[in-house]
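Q: I have two molecules that I believe assemble together. Could you output structure tokens for the complex as a whole instead of separate predictions?
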Amino acid sequence: MSALAETAAGPLLAVEDLSVRFDTDDGSVHAVDRLSFELGAGEVLAVVGESGCGKSVSFMSLLRLLPETAVVTGRAQFGGTDLLAAPLSRLRRIRGREIAFVFQEPMTSLNPSFTIGNQVGEVLRRHLGLSRAEARRRTIELLDLVRIPAPERRVREYPHQLSGGMRQRVMIAMALACDPKILIADEPTTALDVTIQAGILDLMRDIRERLGTSIVLITHNLGVVADLADRVIVMYAGRKAEEAPVHDLFARPQHPYTIGLLGAVPRPGAGAQRLREIPGRVPSLAELPAACAFAPRCPRADDLTRSQVPELREVAPGHRVACFHPGPEADA
Amino acid sequence: MSFADAAPRLSPRARRRRILRRRFLRRPFAVIGLVVAVAFVLGAILAPVVAPYSAAATDFNSVLGHSSGKHLLGTDELGRDVFSRIVWGARASIEAGVFSVLIAMAFAVPVGVVAGYYRGWPDTVIARATDVLLAFPFLILAIGLSAILGPSLTNAMLALGFGVAPQLIRVARGEALALREEDYVRAAIANGAGDIRIMARHVIPNMIPTLIVQATVAIPAAIIGEAVLSFLGLGVQPPTPSWGVMLADAQSYLTQAPRLAIYPGVAIFLCSLSFNLLGDGLRDVLDPRTTR
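A: Yes, here they are, computed for all two components at once.
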């Protein structure tokens, strides 16, 4: 079950032309537009963007966790299975076992009626067929792995007795229970205190090193990205704006939106410098413009950007950008 | 209440139980309801010990007798001890109250949960059917069904269960509709759980407090329902004692001995009131939305 065996055989997960549309009474909302990306074994991929840019929706759609109003098209190859076309019974064996999801809300993602041990153990019993005693033993190991103190005692406690950080650790333990190939963490630290955030990120790094799990980190926090990711995808209004290895992105950002995001990150030691914001607002996704979605907020916008959708171009190895006027900060 | 009360070395379950108990004990009416309801239930179970006479024993020296040392609440037209008959009659009433609600729960909870969880056409069918049944008064439904089934205590319980079920289906459906949107349900789906497992582990267990409250509210309605059915001759059959049967028998002697109607009436009143008070108290204690 080692993820390393996959390395030679190409990417672990290959997503092509993923589009997600929500059909509502007030018309359609295009949440994701023709998104393609790959995820390698043992890789940490960060997906960055503002709220509503489609980053969570893209990954929830891969496991088909969206409500029925969502229309998902495209292909998502995972170990010979197209996740978007596979029957639900096949998908259920992938969910939680091969691809695990950690959600943003640790406070409410645990069932209040059962103990921690019961809930983590359930995943083990169902997916791996462990006995009650084996599951209990393995649960204690997992809680220890995610650095919960006194796991023998914690397994008998109920969610309301745990702090937010502890609950998120339990959620991560549950996600890791079946040794998944991919761990998708959707804003895993947003609801937590800063000091606890650092601990969770530390834990993620540890997981990748010790278990070789591929991690998708969905976040709007670029500080988190720099710390942990190998590669970054920047999303804007349902489209991929830029994709690059993490050092490349921070050293030579190409898309004006990326440059704007980087300008909004507070830097310790930079003095009393005012943080720059990106003017304007995220566009409504009711209809995708037949133009660069960022154009209304972009300092480099011209007639071209307002009349055509920019395609992704490779500006350096592994560094792609969807912009007519890419380049590092010059006029911003 | 001192700090020493808050014993630190308690298991979480015990601590929660302790908090709930304290909240309950702070409500005098709920406590009275509990005490009276328990007294009725114990009296029914221990009828052979509590009742001074058997329900059918006649004392021809005392027909339509007043209260006396020998007969605490007097005797009826056949010289049977009224107090003993009320105690024995509690069996039929409480049995009918509890079992008819259990029957209704066994049917209503799965049906309501399926409707609320799946929504769509199963929900439309179930919810509309429930609405139709709710349009009939509870007793009319029960009387109609027990008339079809034929008179007996078992059939009366089935009929009462049928009468109570629509209300319970509606509650279970509403709870399921709310619980299916919980984050832990989404997390369970992401972990590969199927529909049955989600309903059994994540939806039903989290609606149990609400169901307990609904049950304690439905029981007194079923107790009164049993009395009505027996009064009409559709429930317990004479000579087996039941409060409804006693009321029916008392009709002919209403002018000579109104007490024959008053005593079973008071029993019905007290018994259903006690369960109602208990139910209100439990709702206040278990429902997290009532703050106090």
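A: One point stands out. Chain B has one domain: 21-286.
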